[in-house]
Amino acid sequence: MPSLTIKDELTIYTAADQKSNLLMFLTAGDDLEINLANVTEIDTAGLQLLILIKREAAHLGKSLRFVMHSKAVLDVLELANLTGTFGDQVVLTQN
Amino acid sequence: MTELATIEEKLPAAQSKQTALAGQYLTFTLGGELYALGILSSKEIIDYGNLTEVPMMPVFVRGVINLRGSVVPVVDLLARFGKGSTPIAKRTGIVIVETTSETDDGGSQDLGIIVDAVNEVVEIGQQDIEPPPSFGVGIRPDFINGMAKRNGRFVILLNVSKVLSVDEMAALSKVRQDRHALPDTNNA
Amino acid sequence: MSFDDQMRDALKTFVIESLELLQDMEDGLLGLEEDQEPSERINAIFRAAHTIKGSAGLFGLDHIVAFTHVVESVLDTLRDGKLSVSPELVAILLPCCDHMIELIQAVADGEVNTKPAMTTAERQLLDGLESFLKPEPKQAMTAAQTTGEQFEASGGGVIDSGNWHLFIQFGENCLRDGMDPLSFIRYLATLGEIMSLTTFSHAMPDAESMDPESSYLGFEIVLKSDADKAAIESVFDFVREGSYIHILPLEDKIPYYVELINSLGEDNAQLGELLLKSGVITQRELQEGLNAQQAQVPQPNTRLGEILVDQQVVQQPLVNAALEKQQQIKDNKARENQTIRVDAERLDKLIDVIGELVISGAGVNLRALQTSDSALLEATSEMMRLVEEVRDGALQLRMVAIGATFSRFQRVVRDVGKELGKDISLVITGGDTEVDKSVVEKIGDPLMHLVRNAMDHGIESAEVRAARGKSSRGELRLNAYHESGSIAIEVSDDGGGLDRDRILAKAIEKGLVQPDAKLSDQEIYSLIFEPGFSTASQISNLSGRGVGMDVVKRNVTDLRGDIEVESRPGQGSTIRIRLPLTLAIIDGFLVGVGKSSYVIPLDRVVECLELSGDLNDRDYMDLRGEVLPFIRLRDLFNISGDQPRRPNVVVVHAAGVKTGLVVDRLIGEFQTVIKPLGKLFGHVEGLGGSTILGSGEVALILDVPVLVSTFEHKLQGNMHLAQA
């Protein structure tokens, strides 16, 4: 199963690069997994990318899961009340 | 007339006649006598006429007239003095007098008095005024403030507040009313 | 006018208005317990107290301010729902009203500069009030909680819902400008608690065209916060540019804001200001709305309310509430403008002069009739019509509804009921029936007596009522209606009715009627109005005031009215007073006797007929089978001259009995101004005043009931003497 680990922060500063990176990853297969463990920082731009990639995957009929959410990601998802919407299993990591 | 006697007794003693009586007076004749009213209490003189009789009133209340929209009682002084009623003649007039009630809080009422003829307005000095005699004039002494000598004739200075005391006249009317309620007193 | 005079006038107005407000307050309090939706009423009571306090402050009447302040505080607590309506509360507030009336009366009596020491009574009232101000422990907790919760608690709604509803669509460039929308949301969360949040991403285009550096997200947030709208709005100050930020009161809070708008003072009549003041919009939103309105071309035609709703800064119901409030304020303003307080004396003077105008107009008309100038006649009759219109208009000015007089009895019934230990309710109908002010002023005392009497003697004790199968709560009714040019006022009770036999026995005992007299029920009931008659077998506290029904009757007849009683055994009785609508004008029927003219009040006249010749010396005639006794005015008034060959009879009614008045001539109907006859004629019984005819002559007005009863007494007196 193709998996992508985002190594960098997901912020406005990396958003443009991350967008192409993520969209590229969508073509890697039908059952995809993105590891968020190393996302130490995320802002609205990052959140938008997560939403975008989820939407695109659904649009293309592919399965895409976020795994290993970092604390920063969890906080933002909580705040935006999207944890349930994304429907991914959330495991609290000791980060 | 026992009622009248009672009322007379209740009246206060005639006031001091030494008070300043000097001043301007309106003189008029009535039943051959010459009378005078203080000019300040005399408001106007009108011709006699258009009088409406009010039933069940003593004879000295001749009735009421319309004085420019106000209903004013007219008193026959001669009858008030007990000398019969005044016959109406060509020169008969009505002097409108302002009286103040003694018991009410200073409320004033206009009354008309019937006179045979109005004579003139005269100045009467203190030296011309004598205290009223206690009898002989044929009028209750408390009705008279004094007697003034003028052109060889006596002028009777009337005490308006006594002669035209609305309270006393109303009381007398009431007496008459009550008597009226009894038989055979209709023309008393 | 000097400053002192102005102050005196202003103070007079203060006294009058305060007394009126206190009357309103008392009326409000009396109905408070029964009111299912008392908030309106409580507001009105509060406003009355508030206004009095404010005005008293203007005059430096500190003792009134101090006392009223405590009353106001209690009312405020009541208004906030922290205190509920209870009989105890009403029982303390009513005497407070009384006390305030006393304080204000004292001011009216000239005690402006003296600061009366606090009386024991006042101390007691204040203590009583303060006990309502000390909240119970449970209430204290409620009070300490946030306003949001208070509202829920009183509304009984869901506890965990916020009070603001936010819709935020951040500007597309805000990320690029270095602002992170999520951080604003985090900051918002510090103002209160975010109860719910939904993120919307539908503004985000497809992957191709999505610019990762643009902001696309929108949020819908329910926030529970004590902060006002402006404070919440300020959170978004830095991102406002290009963003859509709408902060609305939560839907279920709309009633709260509607109420808030309704309770606003009346000095801000602009829609925007109302919304702003109630906190549902902010200054900025208002300004934007106004700008949008101004920006419309060719000219502003959309209403501000619509714009604000369009811009989603406020919901429609709130705009509606504000618009309603605005209308209400306008109406109040309009009413203020339409009402002018007029010195009663000036009004009387005007009516006097108009009365004279009528008389002199009639004089002109009479002269005109003597000429045969048809143009002149036409002009004078037109003038007379106008003059009469002016007079009717002037008399209308004096007309007031009797309701205010009636509602004063709410208090009387309450207090007297307590005193008597009877549970009695007062039902008022026909309160909007209008009658001349002078009549209203004079009817209070007779009504008071009738009401007390009905409560004391009419309505039975609860036990007796229960035994008779009636509701234990007695009912007293005050009713008024217009009836052929007069006002009828009824005092009814659902008590035991009049005791026919006891009245008769008493009347015989007192020598009012012969033991063998044959009397109808109606005649027996009417005996209670005879002087010296008292029906109570035991004199109670209330009836021991030395006023009898005879005094009531005399008061009523003094007002040219009459009084009658109806009674149904076991079901109650009704006392009906009929009074003329005005005391200044009378519809009269002019008759002539000898040279004099007399006016008979038209409402007393039943019919007129010719006196048939063969009466000899009888003083009664046959009126279609009825015996009609008559009074010859010529004899009664001792008028000289001969009776004409064919005299006329005017059939009049008084106290339900018909009597004929024999007169020489019938002249006709006319409406006339009553001139009092004055003190000199005060003792003349049977004359109700005088009037001036068109000819300038004075005509006397007959007081029919007194005339008839005086005549009867006189006859009886004669008979007694004849027997003696």
Automatic annotation (TrEMBL), chain A:
Domain of life: Bacteria
Database matches in InterPro entries: MlaB-like_STAS (IPR058548), MlaB_ABC_Transporter (IPR052746), STAS_dom (IPR002645), STAS_dom_sf (IPR036513)
Occurrences of domain STAS (ranges): 1-95
Signal peptide start-end: none
PANTHER family in alphabetical order: BLR2341 PROTEIN
Protein name as annotated: STAS domain-containing protein
Organism field: Methylomonas fluvii
UniProtKB/TrEMBL annotation, chain C:
Keyword DNA repair annotated: no
Catalyzed chemical reaction(s): ATP + protein L-histidine = ADP + protein N-phospho-L-histidine
Superkingdom per UniProt: Bacteria
Domain CheW-like: 585-713
Residue ranges constituting the HPt domain according to the UniProt record: 3-107
Limits of the Histidine kinase domain: 376-583
InterPro entries: Bact_Chemotaxis_CheA, CheA-like_dim, CheA-like_homodim_sf, CheW-like_dom_sf, CheW-lke_dom, HATPase_C_sf, HATPase_dom, His_kinase_dom
Phosphohistidine PTM positions: 50
SMART domains: CheW (SM00260), H-kinase_dim (SM01231), HATPase_c (SM00387), HPT (SM00073)
Keywords, ordered alphabetically: ATP-binding, Chemotaxis, Kinase, Nucleotide-binding, Phosphoprotein, Transferase, Two-component regulatory system
CDD domains with a match to the protein in the record: CheA_reg, HATPase_CheA-like, HPT
Entry EC no(s): 2.7.13.3
Pfam family, one: Hpt
Keyword ATP-binding: yes
Gene3D superfamilies for the chain: Histidine kinase CheA-like, homodimeric domain (1.10.287.560), Histidine kinase-like ATPase, C-terminal domain (3.30.565.10), HPT domain (1.20.120.160), SH3 Domains (2.30.30.40)
Its biological purpose: Involved in the transmission of sensory signals from the chemoreceptors to the flagellar motors. CheA is autophosphorylated; it can transfer its phosphate group to either CheB or CheY.
Cross-referenced PANTHER family: CHEMOTAXIS PROTEIN CHEA, SENSOR HISTIDINE KINASE CHEA
Name of the protein in its database record: Chemotaxis protein CheA
Organism in which the protein naturally occurs: Methylomonas fluvii
